[in-house]
Specification:
Helices cover 26% and strands 32% of the residues. Strands 1-2-3-4-5-7-6 form a 7-stranded mixed β-sheet, with helices on both faces. By secondary structure, it is of the alpha+beta class. It comes from Actinacidiphila polyblastidii.
Length: 182
């Protein structure tokens, strides 16, 4: 029996993960995360043209603007999802937003929560904004649970728009990245 401790970013029983910067080879992963069961809370699957645009955008985002990652299982090196953070204005403040997707066959293992904790570290180290927010639909129990397990604080319900032009009711979850300047 292996007595090696569970890495600090992975809860007991969760598959240990790491984040890898999004690469040109990740288009296949993006296509897999575009399945109807993965996009039902995001307005449905995108066209191949929109996926190609998204893939290009994911490769360009970097630095203070944010960053996109593939979620990789430590044990196998297999990419099983995506996560990232990007800049936006929320309630007249510059903040980061995060979002994720884990392939259906890997869901329920704590992978998304472990990846969300890692993306908080990335945003804290690379960014310049005080807050990181997530905006899952109110009725999306799994994504709301990820926010709670990753240490985000529920700020309440809010009106949100995703995709653009499509109003939804979301929960506003946030975590602090840096202390306020005094």
């Amino acid at each position: 029996m292996d007595d090696a401790p569970t890495p600090p970013h992975a809860p007991a029983g969760a598959a240990p993960v790491r984040l890898r910067t999004w690469s040109p080879d990740d288009l296949r992963l993006l296509r897999r995360t575009n399945a109807p069961e993965m996009t039902e809370h995001l307005g449905g699957p995108e066209t191949e043209e929109k996926l190609a645009e998204r893939h290009e955008r994911y490769q360009r985002i970097d630095g203070d603007a944010g960053r996109m990652f593939a979620i990789v299982l430590e044990a196998t090196g297999e990419a099983v999802g995506s996560i990232g953070f990007w800049g936006r204005t929320w309630q007249d403040q510059p903040v980061y937003e995060t979002g994720w997707g884990v392939l259906p066959e890997y869901q329920g293992r704590g992978i998304a929560a472990a990846a969300a904790r890692l993306v908080v570290v990335e945003a804290r180290e690379r960014g310049d904004r005080r807050w990181l927010h997530a905006f899952p639909k109110v009725e999306h129990a799994a994504s709301n649970a990820v926010c709670r397990k990753a240490g985000f604080t529920l700020m309440g319900e809010c009106a949100f728009e995703y995709p653009k032009g499509h109003p939804i009711r979301s929960n506003d979850w946030r975590t602090e990245l840096s202390a306020p300047e005094i």
